[in-house]
Amino acid sequence: MAPRTRELLIDAAVDLLDAGGPEAVTLREVGRRAGVSHNAPYKHFASKEALLAGVAAAELTRMGGELAALRAGSMPEGGVLRAALRDYVAWAVAGPARFRLVFGVWSAPFDDLVLAVESARNTLLAIVGDAQRAGQLPPGDTERMMSLLQAVTHGAVDLTLSGHLATDGKGNADADGLVDDLLRYLRASVAVTPL
């Protein structure tokens, strides 16, 4: 069965986004690339921002599905969290325009994006909670721990993308290495007992 028009439009928008950033995405060009009439995109998306929100929602839905599959699989203790963060770094570095889009500012809430954010977020929160219960992360506020992990991972990716991090140059590290360092420090802190 052929993909639905909405999916074709999102796929075309992703191609344009990857090639030239959000500025390259226009509803007319998306329609042309998807092989539909120039009015078809407007039947699915009220505006360019709505289309980009659809792209962000599709990305988060896919990522959330991958997180859920990791969590449901069988990995050694702490492996799920590391694999999730490794996948996040790989996705962000391979698709910087998608990464920046997903974490961009939106002028209004878009229902499909809100649902995708909540679903992916809840799955990541569960993975972090699992790692805390397994002693791979310090106990405490799981939400706050997830925010710390996201902030460091996001920051390391952003520094990598802007050329301020390289294993053979600035920072003497890459995003994956810094995430590994953070996880190692957090795991070590669990083992340390206060006096």
UniProtKB/TrEMBL annotation:
Keywords associated with the record: DNA-binding, Transcription, Transcription regulation
Domain of life of the source: Bacteria
Organism: Catenuloplanes nepalensis
Residues in HTH tetR-type domain copies: 3-63
UniProt xrefs under Pfam families: TetR_C_33, TetR_N
DNA-binding residues: 26-45
Protein name: AcrR family transcriptional regulator
